Amino acid sequence: MDDRSAEIEPSEEQIPNRTDDEKNEDKLRKIGNILWWKYPMVEVYRLLGLCNNFGYVIMLSAAHDILSDNTNGKQKGSPTSSSKSLQCNPLSTGTVLLADILPSLLIKVTAPFYMQKIKYSVRIAICMLFAFASFFMVAYSYTLWFSLLGVVFASISSGFGEITLLSYSAHFDKDVVSTWSSGTGGAGLFGALSYAGLTSAGMSPRKAVLVMNVIPFTFGLSFWLVLERPDCLTENEPLLASPRNAGSTFSGAELSYPLTLRTKLRVTKSLMQYMIPLFLVYFAEYFINQGLHELIYWDDTWLTPNEQYRWYQVDYQIGVFISRSSVNIFAFKKIWFLAALQNINLVFLVFEAYFHFLPSVWIMFVIILYEGLLGGACYVNAFYRISKEVKPEHREFSMGVASMADSCGIALAGVTALPVHNALCSNWRSRIR
């Protein structure tokens, strides 16, 4: 028997300030619980994490194709071409990375200070609309600026969703942080694998992107029909004085006043021990992924340069998924060490992009898998430590603020990738001549 069947649910009279919309939302969730047999909330959070980050991953996986299609036309790799040739897009894939991260970063920087004024249900609707729009725009665009606008919309959806659902996770058991992280890692793996698989099977990149519209639909269903609404939660409630599980009953004494600006700044300062390693590890790995991957490939293999780029993304996401799913088995406190290892990776691969000394693409696949393991481990262990070490009354705010760190690192990686791409391409052109 489901343990939750024995819980005593509070009546609507026990929960103050209930609007008709909130009551209707509860009815939808009850229908969802019947349909899904009250699926464990930690698993629902895994699905939400997957759906939320899916569009972001697709845009990065398709970055090389987006730029090739809108600047050079279809790029055709040749397995018999000279091993000293280097195919360079006029723009680095860091361009797509910037379009995919800057809007999300802007949301994360500002949202913790105003997000509570927006209902959770409205936030999720915004995420869905922007996700749908992003896939359609990229699929039907024939100009670079419009494609990049579609990428921007995917970024808005992902950033809004991440800060919303990480804050919402404070109302559930702390294990949802692990399953959320696992879900976001799964988004990387599932997104990169589905895109690479569909295009390798013969589907055009445009059609492959269009197929992905099923994901925003699943995202909305998961939140409104499946995810259980904490009985103690109102749509615009202040930060919590103490953590509560989904089945807990409401008590007015459990609510506190919103945090003051001074308190928010003090809490943010205390989070630097988690945020700085996150920043460093994400700078290194996204500089590698969007600044170097497109310049490191082999002509004498069965994969074209475009295909190698796609499968690099899959390989990286496999590593991320494995490590993000591991925190309940093995927690690693020294996240600074993970950041240092990732930056050693970066230095090594900058030399590889310049000298091209690795003998085989298989060695590159091993390095990229290791890169993904480090990045995923740093992310999940940082947020897991926050969920355990930060005071309960600060936890919801802290989750949202800490998510800014990885976005800042990714944004800096995108900015840095542009001149490095141009310098490496110029160097190789001069050496070939």
TrEMBL record:
One GO location term (cellular component): endomembrane system
Keyword set includes Cell cycle: no
Transmembrane annotation, as ranges: 124-157, 177-196, 208-227, 335-355, 361-384
Biological process, per Gene Ontology: regulation of intracellular pH
Location(s) in or outside the cell: Endomembrane system; Lysosome membrane
Bilayer disposition of the protein: Multi-pass membrane protein
Annotated stretches, region: Disordered: 1-24
Main location, first listed in the record: membrane
InterPro entries per record: Battenin_disease_Cln3, Battenin_disease_Cln3_subgr, MFS_trans_sf
Keywords per UniProt: Lysosome, Membrane, Transmembrane, Transmembrane helix, Transport
Stated family: Belongs to the battenin family.
Name of the featured protein: Battenin
